[in-house]
Amino acid sequence: MNRQSAVWAAVADTLLVALFVVIGRRSHAEGLDLGGLWQTAWPFLAALLIGWLVSLAWRRPLAVWPSGVVIWAMTLVGGMLLRTVSGQGTQLAFVLVAAGTLALFLLGWRAAVALVARWRSPRAAS
Fold first, then answer.
1. How many domains are there within the chain?
2. Is residue 126 in some structural domain?
3. Residue 102 in contact with residue 72, Cβ under 8 Å?
4. What is the pTM of this model?
């Protein structure tokens, strides 16, 4: 995989985590001021970075497994742990919604790319 793919994948993941934060804050009628957005986002963005490092995702940034799954798991678990140590809430309902939303976002686009690549690949002659 080339460097450009890794950069685009990292940008996509970062934007999708930011979108997750914006959606969450809007759904709870919380403000979208930069301070509030940052307070909510930083644990997940830091955990996303850790996920990229742990998975060595730059080697296969578009792969659902293992890159996407490790990134998703680290973003979820690491984000919740960082929220906990920073005094932010981690109620079970939030963890479940975050798990589903982050899976949809971080795994979903990778799965879509894999499906398109499979669809576009030439089929072997019968």
1. 1
2. no
3. yes
4. 0.92
